[in-house]
């Protein structure tokens, strides 16, 4: 498997190239990430490479210690300040010169964040996944192996036999859940919308865990 840093870089280059051609009206539409527009999601991706610990700590305190509310507030504020084109340029620049938390955040988790949030935009807009097989393998493997303080994917996956049919990825034993890698990764990231694209006798159990 390629290093996470390389997988992340290649993924972001591909995403920026594709997103630069998306119509302006797409950015104002809601994403699959609750209460975030596609514009907000893009701002979040740009912010992840350069937010300062002090900025994040202040937002966390202002929102009662809720990481989710602080994260949303920072992304939505940046979205109000920058157009999608400006955010794409900011993301491209920050990739090679990360600052603040962007310098220390684990690349395995950041890759998952970027792949999943692009899927939030694409699936909400009726677009297909464009994530590479190597990136999807890395994201799924991280989801089921690495504890994540923000999304308990590993807990949701425990005791299930998971299979991504399109890339040949498998994990675990137990009731089965199968489908395309992008839909499986989206579900394990807490997006129950994609459950409709999965099959197997473990889907109902996975649905209950996400509820």
Automatic annotation (TrEMBL):
One of its GO terms (molecular function) is isomerase activity. It comes from the Bacteria. Residues 18-94 form the Mycothiol-dependent maleylpyruvate isomerase metal-binding domain. InterPro entries: DinB/YfiT-like (IPR034660), Maleyloyr_isom (IPR017517), MDMPI_metal-binding (IPR024344). The keyword Cell inner membrane does not apply. The keyword Isomerase applies. Keywords: Isomerase, Pyruvate. It holds the Pfam family MDMPI_N. NCBIfam families: maleylpyruvate isomerase family mycothiol-dependent enzyme. This is Maleylpyruvate isomerase family mycothiol-dependent enzyme. It comes from Mycolicibacter arupensis.
């Amino acid at each position: 498997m390629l290093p996470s840093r390389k997988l992340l870089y290649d993924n972001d280059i591909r995403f920026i190239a594709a997103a630069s051609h998306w119509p302006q009206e797409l950015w104002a539409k809601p994403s699959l990430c609750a209460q975030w527009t596609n514009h907000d999601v893009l701002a979040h991706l740009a912010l992840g490479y350069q937010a300062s610990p002090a900025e994040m700590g202040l937002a966390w305190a202002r929102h009662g210690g809720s990481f989710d509310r602080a994260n949303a507030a920072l992304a939505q504020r940046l979205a109000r300040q920058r157009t999608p084109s400006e955010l794409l340029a900011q993301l491209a620049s920050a990739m090679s010169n990360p600052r603040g938390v962007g310098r220390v955040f684990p690349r395995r988790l950041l890759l998952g964040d970027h792949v999943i949030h692009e899927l939030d935009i694409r699936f909400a807009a009726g677009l297909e996944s464009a994530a590479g097989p190597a990136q999807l393998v890395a994201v799924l493997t991280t989801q089921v192996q690495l504890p994540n303080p923000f999304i308990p994917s590993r807990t949701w996956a425990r005791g299930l036999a998971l299979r991504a049919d399109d890339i040949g990825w498998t994990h675990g034993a137990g009731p089965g859940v199968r489908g395309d890698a992008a839909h499986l990764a989206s579900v394990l990231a807490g997006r129950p919308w994609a459950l409709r694209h999965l099959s197997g006798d473990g889907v109902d159990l996975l649905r209950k865990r996400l509820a």
